Amino acid sequence: MSRSSEVDRHRALGLLQAGLPISEVSLRMNLKKTRIFRVRQRLHETDTVSDRPRSGRPRCTTQRQDRDLVRNHMNNRFLSASASSPHTRERNNQRISAKTVRRRLSTSGLRARRPYIGPILTQRLRHQRTLWAQEHAAWDRIQWRSVVFSDEPQFCIDHADGHVHVWRRSGERLKDTKQIALGNATGGVEHL
């Protein structure tokens, strides 16, 4: 269940101070009775209805370091989290883990995805493909038997096939495909 806002808490307290019972305030505000009771109890104990501080481990990176990580991965989208983690240090000068890098990138909306591998279709290539399809539209089975299609997938059973990942946001699958295809410093897959 989501938390009630501080405005709702003050409104509930105002209704209680106006003399309404908890059940009536609960109906009017569409909140559970226990929530309203706890808000009133917190006001009596702490003189405030604000959230109490929560425990939890403090962040090991600063906001500036987080922005630097995102910027580095946006400039080189094929950079792995494990490759960038040794270059970022915590506040106490220890290196951060690759998992922390992935969390920071995920918070900013970046996800590690398999790169798009396929033709970069320009207007000229689309036109040529359309012409080819129109020329071969009337072919029969006998003519198609002499054609060999060589786009079968490759399977690696006994070793890693060297797949790389690209960091991108949702909807960026084909964005700037030409720019990334022209040159990638890592020498890996060339298409986004």
UniProtKB/TrEMBL annotation:
<protein>
    <submittedName>
        <fullName>Transposable element Tc1 transposase</fullName>
    </submittedName>
</protein>
<dbReference type="GO" id="GO:0006313">
    <property type="term" value="P:DNA transposition"/>
</dbReference>
<dbReference type="GO" id="GO:0015074">
    <property type="term" value="P:DNA integration"/>
</dbReference>
<dbReference type="InterPro" id="IPR009057">
    <property type="entry name" value="Homeodomain-like_sf"/>
</dbReference>
<feature type="region of interest" description="Disordered">
    <location>
        <begin position="80"/>
        <end position="104"/>
    </location>
</feature>
<dbReference type="InterPro" id="IPR036397">
    <property type="entry name" value="RNaseH_sf"/>
</dbReference>
<feature type="compositionally biased region" description="Basic and acidic residues">
    <location>
        <begin position="45"/>
        <end position="54"/>
    </location>
</feature>
<dbReference type="Pfam" id="PF01498">
    <property type="entry name" value="HTH_Tnp_Tc3_2"/>
</dbReference>
<dbReference type="InterPro" id="IPR002492">
    <property type="entry name" value="Transposase_Tc1-like"/>
</dbReference>
<dbReference type="GO" id="GO:0003677">
    <property type="term" value="F:DNA binding"/>
</dbReference>
<feature type="region of interest" description="Disordered">
    <location>
        <begin position="45"/>
        <end position="66"/>
    </location>
</feature>
<feature type="domain" description="Transposase Tc1-like">
    <location>
        <begin position="66"/>
        <end position="137"/>
    </location>
</feature>
